[in-house]
Specification:
With 502 residues, the protein is α/β, with parallel strands linked by helices. The protein contains 15 helices and 13 strands. α2 links the parallel β2 and β3. α3 packs parallel to α4, α9 packs across α11 and α9 crosses α14. It starts with 8 loop residues before the first helix and ends in a 14-residue tail after the last helix. Bound molecules: glutamine (GLN). The site of glutamine (GLN) has 13 residues, from loops.
Length: 502
């Protein structure tokens, strides 16, 4: 099932790719799945996804596509080829889309810039001296450059939404359990979901409609609860009341917590990292004004537990990562050393040479928070904070039961990341500041809720996204609001962009 690529498309891709380095693997003649691979065990794909037929798409290199690389951005898995295809991708293929390549990422999804990739460097299409964001930076830059109309990424703490904001694309992190994780190489299983990066909101909706649904291969998946807003059709809910989270109040709360624990320098850095860059603050205000003009009612909301979100996120994510990454031992997968003294030495040498510094740091952190006798102090406490965050959101947005009284808000507006795409070296953000800056994204993962990042404005030549976070299985509401915004404020494109797929 080969697709016909438009004239001039391949040279357009080559030109962009030398500048942005989005792909780990790219097929000039994409073929799609063999007929036998489109087995009939898949539930029917909704008819609204028909326009996806014949479109090329890109897939982050931690999501399995048969015959393609599955490096996870790691040297350790650089030579691995996937023997099978993830459910989300099979569903896209059943809808007629064709995978054209695998995209670069921070190693195992750990990072916010894609600079932690062990394979190559990815640049931002708007300014090649800046990062594309991460960890799904390759997918975001490929979409922003117009190489593909959409791509899959994965989001554990912001890895779809943050690069979407940096590159000026739409980025959806679905409700936990809405999309099968079968075929996604696990980083932190209780937090992560496969997500969508797309050039427009309507395309994002279509891709989400194709990939979501219960999958017997992932027991955490489920169908949307009765009464939840449908993605298509007349009964589409129109969100009306948008809660606005004040970034100033969040930054103040973190600064106050840092003050209490005076003497811990890292907390001061964390407090600074939470403050929005002027350009981001400006775009966030503009988005509020515009939504108000469009007729939405904006109300101020608070999420008191948010100030503890980042420490809770990094405790849980690293704990799960240390367990999930234990399988990469050079025995069953991975690049082995030429020679080892004994099996233990084989494992040590494989992991020492194969994992990059960020991954090693997180494995150490994870084993530290899980070590015997200390689980109460770190891991269980983080789980309590996680429950608190979920409760705070539920009070504002409602829970899974759609038959109760309407909740106070239809969605919550918040920034995606405190900065626009940052540079490297002196002009960059330290790895610690990057982690601290995950506060606006990681809360949706901790609570298992859907969140959508969409381009709000171009400030100083760089895109800035804003984020809408919603009740479980209310993706349709978030997409409706963003689609109305996009209709009035169209998504801009970087210089040199050609609309091959519109
Ligand atoms: N920046 C976050 C981290 O490094 C997000 C990662 C992700 O969502 N995969 O963990």
């Amino acid at each position: 099932m080969a697709i016909t690529l438009p004239d001039g498309f391949l040279s357009y891709c080559k030109e962009w790719e030398t500048r942005i380095g989005a792909f780990i693997e790219f097929k000039d003649e994409p073929e799609g799945p063999e007929a036998g691979d489109l087995s009939p065990d898949l539930p029917p794909i909704p008819p609204e996804t028909a326009p996806l037929r014949g479109l090329p798409c890109a897939v982050k290199d931690n999501i399995a596509v048969k015959g393609f690389s599955l490096s996870c951005g790691s040297k350790l898995l650089e030579k691995l080829r996937s023997p099978y295809t993830a459910t989300a991708v099979r569903r896209l293929e059943a809808a007629g889309a064709v995978v054209i390549g695998k995209t670069n990422m921070d190693e195992f999804g750990m990072g916010s810039s894609t600079d932690s990739s062990g394979i190559k460097r990815t640049n931002n299409p708007w300014d090649q001296s800046r990062v594309a964001g991460g960890s799904s930076g390759g997918s975001a830059s490929a979409v922003a450059a117009g190489i593909v109309p959409f791509a899959l990424g994965s989001d554990t703490g912001g890895s779809v939404r943050q690069p979407a904001s940096f590159c000026g694309t739409v980025g959806l992190k679905p409700t936990y359990g809405a999309v099968s994780r079968y075929g996604l190489v696990a980083y932190a299983s209780s937090l992560e979901t496969i997500g969508v990066l797309a050039d427009t909101v309507s395309r994002c909706r279509r891709v989400f409609a194709a990939i979501r649904g219960k999958d017997p291969r992932d027991e955490t998946t489920r169908e949307p609860p009765p009464g939840s807003p449908p993605l298509y059709g007349a009964a589409r809910s129109k969100g009306r009341v948008i809660g606005v989270l004040s970034p100033e109040a969040v930054a103040r709360a973190i600064a106050a917590a840092a003050q209490e624990a005076s003497g811990v320098d890292a907390l001061q850095t964390a407090a600074q990292a939470a403050v929005l860059e002027d350009e981001v603050a400006q775009a966030f205000r503009a988005a509020q004004d515009r939504l108000a003009d469009m007729g939405y009612t904006l109300v101020d909301v608070e999420i008191p537990s948010l100030k503890y979100g980042v420490p809770a996120y990094y405790t849980i994510a690293t704990a799960e990562a240390s367990a999930n990454l234990a399988r990469f031992d050079g025995v069953r997968y991975g690049k082995r050393p030429d020679w080892a003294e004994n099996p233990d030495d084989l494992i040590d040498k494989t992991r020492e040479a194969g994992f990059g510094p960020e991954v090693k740091l997180r494995i150490l952190l994870g084993t530290f928070v899980l070590r015997s006798g200390f689980q109460d102090r770190y891991y269980l406490r983080a789980q309590r904070i996680r429950s608190g965050i979920r409760r705070n959101f539920e009070e504002l947005l409602g829970g899974m039961d759609y038959n109760g009284p309407p909740p106070p808000c239809d969605g919550i507006l918040l920034p995606v990341f405190p900065t626009r795409a940052f540079g490297r070296g002196e002009t960059g953000l330290s790895p610690f500041a990057q982690k601290a800056a995950d506060l606006y994204t990681c809360c949706a993962n901790l609570a298992g809720l859907p969140a959508l990042s969409f381009p709000a404005e171009l400030v100083g030549g760089l895109p800035v996204g804003v984020q809408l976070l919603g009740r479980a299985f209310s993706e349709a509401t978030l997409l409706d609001i963003a689609e109305a915004y996009e209709a009035k404020y169209p998504i801009p494109h970087p210089a040199g962009y050609r609309p091959f797929w519109s």
